[in-house]
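Researcher: Here's my situation. A collaborator sent me these components and asked whether they could plausibly form a single complex. I don't have experimental data yet, so a predicted model of the whole assembly would be a useful starting point for our discussion.
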Amino acid sequence: MQNATEGLDAALEKLTGSQEDFYKGQLALTRVMGEAGAPGNDAKRAEVARKLAEGLVNGGKYPIAARREIARRLGEIGGDSEIPALQSALVDLELRESARGALDRIPTPAATAALIQASKQLLGDRFVIGIVNALGQRTGEGVVAALSELAKSPNAEIRVAVGEAISQQSDPSGDEIILAIINDKSVPLTPQQAGSLAKARVRLAANLNGKGKQADAKRILQSILAERPISMAQPVAERVLERVRLSC
Amino acid sequence: MSDPKRSSRRNFLKASAAATFVAPTIVPATAFANGDRPAPSDRVVVGCIGTGDLGRRHHLNNMLLPNPRIEVAAVCDVDQNHRDQAAIDVYNKTKRKVGVYEDFRELCDRTDIDAVLVATPDHWHTLTSIYAIESGKDVYCEKPLTLTIDEGKNFVATARRYGAVVQTGSQQRSDSRFRLACELVRNGYIGKLKQVDTHIGGIGSGEWKPVTTPPPELNWDFWLGPAPYREYSPNRVHYDFRWFSDFSGGKMTDWGAHHNDIAQWGIGADGSGPVKVEGKGVFSETGPYDVAGDFEVKYTYGNGVVLICHAEGENGIKFTGENGWVFVSRGKIEASNPDLLKTEFKSTDTRLYKSDHHHNNWLDCIKSREKPICDVEVGHRSCTICHLGNIAMKLGRPLEWDPVKEDFVNDELASRLVRKPMRAPWQV
């Protein structure tokens, strides 16, 4: 264990130097993590992850570029024990995208919970869209509910991202959420945004078909095809509907 | 399989042509077939996404514009010089002005475009292609098809759910030499297959160039797109993006997507893959290129066949069986017994999908709605071989792979590397 963490200290130190040194630090980190992350090396992995988390929260020790790299690596090797460190980085404007990406990569319910909590508390349009996108890749308790709340955002771009994330969920009720975004005139959508949401409805139906929920898929697609005036999503909806019929 | 969108455009054109018999003086000559040039209703209207060196020189100028079955309607690139020059090329060849876009979404949202050709840097392949499919387009996407294994799974699922025709740009499948080599192997003419060696070349370390302001014609933030934010440096863009793992997978994906694809074809592993991978990679100690420069990666398939992908050696693929070998590369095929190359296949032999023109095969399939020779799943699985090699080299240990679940076996760290988070606001 000593060797692994010694190598880690040297790697982290390199991240504080020139771009060439930074590269060397990245390479050294990769080697340390490859060894520590091997199956059966749980204690070593935990130690490396713990030290990376320390480096992330210890703002004075490493420059921002190094801390971003540390956050990124925590996404690869970190576990639930490192989530508090990543959560603390979410409130740092310069670190939060890297921390969000790390949580996106950690596949545990605790990481999902951290993303949901962030979606309720944190601001910044593009950042929130990143949170929404990460939630869209996940399932589990609270994901659809959190996305539903974000669907009420006053920001149209966030709403569109929510619609697209909902479409990944294979939950038939997602169509109502997307329709509510489309029909809420208090937050007007550009034609491109409206088009994105129409496509999101088709994607939801296509995903439902892929999950064996043909009746729900058909209902959504027929609803799209019945809309007037004709939308650009309709030819695609017709094509997907044909796939649904073939799979029935 | 019908194609409502395309049928609509074609029906409209046919209806217009019918009307011309009533009022022939207003009919444009281009509404009819002209010699070898098909009528507009039979042409595929294509938009080009990514018009840099490969997109413009190879695809646009060599493959699309000379093809009478294609009408190029739009070009798109985040580098203004690239897109403007591509539009000029189209005008010089056809005397028609085309739509010129910085944002691929605007091109894909056009309802008069049937299909797109994606020749962007690798980190954009899946994102643009999936957007195009969800906009009702068919897709020709350059190799390597994806940046990650997870992208490939999404790409395949989307293509299937939307019924899109997707051709992967691993065009060696449309070359008779590669097909002959694989047919000899698949039919046992070299005996039971034991080993495949692919030789794909390596790279050096590259040179550091100072971080600087992006040139005014390049929308750097858009170029980066879903990749992690990096300051601009001229050796990260255009051709050299291939040697940075944020954007590509080095030679392993660049040439591996060609030769490992042929290995998969010869092994008969399309739709599947190896069960073990072990790689030795040499990474530059100084940078800036952060992909393996020299390497040897060994893959073991469930039937015991071994594939070894080498940086070194004569570029090409060598299949070795119990009774002989066959070597194939671009412009060359050799065998342990030269008579093997004159083999007359028996009616009971397995014959492989025949295509003699990769782009025309795509066009044929757009019309027939059949799968092209290098369908999206073929491209994804071949690309997976390359990604597995890169992951094994990065981790420096043998890995077990489940080609059915498309995940590593009992290796949490390796499993996390099958996908990369995308920088907001991008997502597929």
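Model: Some features of this prediction you could bring to your collaborator: Chain B touches chain A through 49 residues (CB under 8 Å). Chain B is about 35% helix and 15% strand.
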